[in-house]
From TrEMBL:
Protein name as catalogued: Sulfate ABC transporter ATP-binding protein
PROSITE patterns xrefs: ABC_TRANSPORTER_1 (PS00211), ABC_TRANSPORTER_2 (PS50893)
GO cellular component, one term: ATP-binding cassette (ABC) transporter complex
Upper taxonomic lineage: Bacteria, Pseudomonadati, Pseudomonadota, Alphaproteobacteria, Hyphomicrobiales
Biological source species: Devosia limi DSM 17137
Pfam families in the record: ABC_tran, TOBE_3
């Protein structure tokens, strides 16, 4: 089901947690709400669920205005970070719960409920554990039960709030892959909250990057990673290095010297140059970025070095394809393969 969020504002005691947020969530997609702590991700999810009401704006489910509807009327599947399973119920009872408490008119017969719950336990690869209680499962298994329980009611929309946040890195990575597979098989419209950019890049069809109660950018993982729309998005999605440059008549300048990168036509003046540490090439060209290595550390399979550049002690980081001894100073010239320029806003 499509979900349309139209100019939604949410205030808590006059504190604006969301400012006029608009977002179209497409039927069947998995969209990640991504942003730092306090950016409004959970608030937006709770508004979609009906757990909070907007101060202003509307929320549509398909063509229906759901803004005034209750949680139950919205037919939402919800999974939270801290598995809210019923401790006194078996796994099978947990998964069946949402169907069992339906009004008699829409409740399937008991045999059908059991069959559906067993099918879902099979889908989440927990067949055989249906008679256990939640405290007899690992954290990762409990989150899989929570997902099966959310899917049992055949929700129009599935909402996941940091569902793997409390799990260790290895289990998290496994569940991420697994969730993507389940999504591809079941095709539910899914909204996934995370502050982990790697998780969002790997899992989602589209990312919605949020900051301070606003949407900064919405797009596919590739579009957001490769063409971030703002310095904030560049720095938040992936690693970044930044330098203050000047846009000259046809090239970029640092301290009045060409850095060997063309300037886009039509603009001039100060700008912020951003690039990814891994996306550079070494060069011996005179017109290039050059500086002294001041620090060096290992990052995964590469060596990341800090380079002091220009007259103002500005530092950037780049990855080297060879091992650079930590603590050794040497001069390096390089050029970003891809970069982005952002205007410097005039000070008010
Ligand atoms: P996190 O990643 O830490 O969960 P988030 O991006 O999900 O953060 P929200 O929980 O949506 O952020 O909070 C957004 C802002 O709204 C925060 O400044 C928070 O303090 C505030 N806020 C959220 N819920 C309430 C509430 N019930 N009462 C008052 N302020 C709230």
């Amino acid at each position: 089901m499509d979900v349309r969020i139209a100019k939604v504002r949410k205030e808590f005691d006059r504190f604006p947690a969301l400012h006029d947020v608009s977002l179209d969530i497409h039927s069947g997609e998995l969209i990640a709400l991504l942003g730092p702590s306090g950016s409004g991700k959970t608030t937006l999810l709770r508004l979609i669920a009906g757990l909070e009401m907007p101060t202003d704006g509307r929320i549509f489910f398909g063509d229906i205005d759901a803004s005034e509807k209750t949680v139950q009327e919205r037919n939402i599947g919800f999974v939270f970070q801290h598995y809210a399973l019923f401790r006194h119920m078996t796994i099978l009872e947990n998964v069946s719960f949402g169907l069992k408490v339906r009004p008699r008119s829409s409740r399937p017969p008991a045999g059908e409920i059991r069959r559906r719950a067993m099918e879902l336990l099979d889908l989440v690869q927990l067949s055989g554990l249906e008679k256990r209680y939640p405290n007899q499962l690992s954290g990762g298994q409990r989150q899989r039960v929570a997902l099966a329980r959310a899917l049992a009611i055949e929700p129009g929309v599935l909402l996941l709030d940091e569902p793997f946040g409390a799990l260790d890195a290895q289990v998290r990575r496994e569940l991420r892959k697994w969730l993507r597979e389940i999504h591809d098989r079941t095709g539910h419209t899914t909204v996934f909250v995370t502050h982990d950019q790697e998780e969002a890049l790997e899992l989602a069809d589209r990312l919605c990057v949020m900051s301070q109660g606003k949407i900064e950018q919405v797009g596919t993982p590739d579009a957001v990673y490769d063409t971030p729309s703002s310095p904030f998005v560049f720095g938040f999605i992936g690693e970044s290095s930044e330098l203050p440059v000047t846009i000259g008549s046809n090239e970029l300048l640092l301290d009045g010297r060409s850095v060997g990168l063309p300037a886009s036509s039509g603009t001039s003046g100060p700008a912020r140059l951003f690039f990814r540490p891994h996306d550079v090439e070494l060069t011996d060209d005179d017109a290039a970025l050059a500086g002294e290595v001041t620090a060096s550390r290992r990052v995964g399979g590469t060596r990341r070095v800090e380079i002091e550049i220009g007259n103002n002690g500005q530092k950037v980081e780049i990855d080297l394809p060879f091992d650079h001894p930590a603590g050794q100073r040497s001069r390096i010239s390089f050029r970003p393969r891809r970069w982005r320029l952002f205007d410097v806003k005039p000070q008010a």
